# Entry
Amino acid sequence: MLRSMTGFGSGRASAGHEDLAVELRSVNGKFCEVKSRLPRELLALESAAVRRVKDRLARGGVDLTVRRGGGGGGGDLAPRIDEALAARYVESFRSLRDRLGLAGDVTIADVIGAEGVLSLEERTPDLEAAGEALAKALDDALDRLVAMREQEGRALREDLAARLQTIAGLVARVAAEAPLAVRQQHERIQQRVAELTGGLQIDPQRLAQEVALLAERSDIAEELTRLDSHLAQFHLLLDATEPVGRRMDFLVQELNREVNTIASKSQWASLAALAVDLKAEIERIREQVQNVE
# Structure
């Protein structure tokens, strides 16, 4: 199935105490290039995540973002209590109470509120659980990304098929008009020779040789055959199951090459105009192919 290179996908998964959220964004690219952003405490999992993306995607520039705690809210932080410091605070508070003759005892609120007893620190990750959660979340994100690419690919296929049909029609017109152009050239040469010679008899064999040379120089049969072959190959690629963007790009170059040759050989305005129309349609296909995986 034809696939686009642009898309978005997200996933979220948990394993053990690890909760990870993944986002993927992809755009056009000549190769599969993955730019990853992971929390520094999970950098050991980066290479495995990048390989997982490249196993599913053949082309495109991909941004991979991973967040702990489901994407925010402090899920990657854990409270830390300095028990030794808390014990010293209790001892100091009770000593102060006794010296001042105060009533009551030290409460947990008094201790927790004391400076330095309670703090937040990054929770040390469980890399095994984090790797399991990352694999699941990444697979979900890839599934959604690929689904979006395939949806856009269906639209691309319809557009490319319609444009290939247009090109095939133009090529058929070129094939039909090429013999007419040669005959018209023959008639024009005969008329021009008659005007220049003032009615003098010209060797018809010599004139036929000149016309034959002209016909050989303007013969586009080979170019038309190759155009038909390239179009047939392009149609096959529309339903290929593997990534075909690079092969399509090559065929576009070959289509353009043949049309340029036809344009250079054309001695008749109608053929030149058809060549211009062909080049314009091929350029539209080239722009679409840039987004095919």
Q: What stands out?
A: The chain has three domains: 7-72+127-150, 77-122, 153-289. The first helix runs from residue 46 to 56.
